[in-house]
Write a structure and sequence with these properties.
single chain; alpha+beta; two-stranded antiparallel sheet; 18% helix; globular
Amino acid sequence: MFIKALELNGFKTFAKRQKLLFGPGINIIIGPNGSGKSNVVEAVL
């Protein structure tokens, strides 16, 4: 199974709709503390 995109709306730190697109291979999510990196992982789970 491959995840091509993730759309979040009203989930934890993502109050507004956000769409994350994932390309083939390895994808890395980077950002400052408190930006929601862990929330992206929780949304996938």
